[in-house]
Amino acid sequence: MGKSGKEMSELNPRQVRALILLLIVAPLIPACIMLQLMMQTVRAEHEAAEDRAGALYEANLRTAAASVVAQLKAEQDPPAKLAARADRYFNQCFARDVKVRLLPPSAAGNDAAIASPLAEVALDTPLRGWKVELFQNGFDPLDDAFRYEITFFALVAGAAILLNIGIAGVAGFALSRQMRVHELKSTSLEIVSHELRTPLASTRVLLDTLLAKPQSLPEPAGEYVRLISDENLRLIHLAESFLTLARLERGNCRLERHPIAPAELFRDAVRTARARLNLTAPELQVDVPGNLPDVLVDREAMTVALANLIDNAVKYSSGRKEITLRAMLDADAVEFQVIDHGIGIARAEQKRIFDRFYQVNQTLARAHQGCGLGLSIVKSIVQAHGGKIRITSAEGLGTTVGLLLPAA
What we know:
The chain is an alpha+beta fold and 408 residues long. The chain has helices at 13-25, 28-72, 79-93, 141-211, 221-250, 262-277, 299-315, 362-367, 374-384, and strands at residues 6-8, 98-103, 119-122, 131-136, 257-260, 284-287, 295-298, 323-330, 333-339, 388-394, 398-406. It is rod-shaped.
């Protein structure tokens, strides 16, 4: 199977918690950027408006200054009286929102205690050397409009932030609740499976004792005991599967990773699968190059995963039960492939085969007494090792499942 095969992945609880945090924090970023852009736009408009207003005030002040100087030229009063009359004329020319100040030549440039004027003009004869300045008188409509726009945009941005946080909070709450339900289900499954192990093990001991002396069992009691023994083994395997899956999903299954050669891993998996299915040698073909690097895995867990794949491949190979086990190097990983020539899997169902309790062919599943947990366990084990799963299948042509594990 090439790289075009399908890769299976799922979010673990830690990734889900990170996603919830991202859902809450992410809306703040565009909202803050939007508010900053709005503020910059309003400030630029305010500065442009101030520049236009300053130019207008200066033009009006020059016109008023020319008019006042023209009126005072014919008078012969001292400069102090002319200045007082000029100040009265200037204040009559402008509205109450601005005030005018006349500065004599000796006071020119000595205005540090007063804010910068909106406009200033030097006067001509008979008040040559004098300067008239125009100031804002308290209320500034531009500043008030600026504050109004800033307040409006801040409220809009705040409402957007609250709305986004609210939506993200609802989504995060739903995800958190779903994770809690999933955790409770896994916990319940683990508890029930653990409690089933003791009575099943006790029953196994009694059955093994009876089967050790088959001649002491009259017929049909002997046949019944053998049937009960088979069912007991199936229940033990089912309980172990439930327990393994629950522990893997909750992160309670400790993996003891050690370097192991791919050939040894396949050998253990074949031994386990043959013990389950009573396979003969020709049904399994192992193709492992001798130059492959070791993989760092939990030997027991990965043996279970590969044995489950072999078990599944045999069950769904109707006529030609030839299973090929192949290992190959893929970049910095080793890919373990289990290849069958069975019934295959439809493309629409390939996304779901690793879901718990999902079975592609219900008839075959009932015939082989499957419960749909084998591939779920494979998926959980591979993800716990930081690996990936690839699947390639065609109906009637068979299926190839590949496990990619990091090389040691």
